[in-house]
Write a structure and sequence with these properties.
The protein has 311 residues and is mainly β. The protein has 4 helices and 28 strands. A hairpin with a 2-residue loop joins strand 21 and strand 22.
Length: 311
Amino acid sequence: MLFSLNFTTSSCQSEHTEQLVHIVAQPEVEINKIFGFAITYKVKPDSVWSNSDQIENLELTEKFNKSINRIEESTTTYEGGNTKTKHYYSSSNWATPTKLGKVNFPIIFYKIKDKVYQTKPFSINVVENLKVNSNSVILKLSSDKETYKLGDTIKIQLLEFSKFDLVSRFSKREFENAMNNLNVKGEQNAIKITFEKKVDDIVGIPDFEKYIDERFEVIRFDWNPFNQDRSIAQINNVNFIQSKIFELTVLAKQKGDFTIGSSEFEYFITKSETDARNNIEPSDEEGWHKLTKKNSTKVSIQSNPLKIKVK
């Protein structure tokens, strides 16, 4: 099974039953290095505002209130047996830290269906230098239960928890030719990216698709190719950027014990937007650019295996 996607961007939650708006930024950033941050929305708000245009000890590329009102809509289209489109909403900005220590972000207020909500307090830390290692990313493979009855729906998901915003991952199989199937071109304030991706490469498990098809009926497979659906989560009181890599809903064809192997990826981690911009070099073809990894660090990350029992 292959997934073909088209992606375009164009300018166009206090506690609720769930947090509808998240401020997403790298938990620790380097002083005097540009970093990006985003406001992600589960649904598009009717209006959004803040009581501050600036963030203390950060030089913003764009005033805070202006940037949070520049909401972009992104869509992913999955083409295959059933065409499906998902919508994401976000605003973004860039900043340069000017002082070491804690930086507090302004509270964001937003209105949805005549009700006003606000974001939770959010802060990051500015340091002299960041180190990248095997603890920079954690992968967690899980199911909604450990034991099921035959006929129960089984939900499996792989979550990524990263200390860094700018990460790219590749399965072991696709690593050698990681950039060969990806073309990037900017045109008229939009980005269009088209590529094909095998299920085994999405999940980072060799022969995953074959294993699942032989033992389960697939109800739904959902994944997050451009990391739009992100939030901040804590592990052992440490902040990480949480992203869902995939979610799979299945029905077991028979009773038994099933083991899904560990997901494994090669990661390239870039510490700042400054470093990322220095990774971009002109291409021989006019209008195109070559993405290098000269300012990124490569690490291998592996998840836990997953055991499921169907009675």
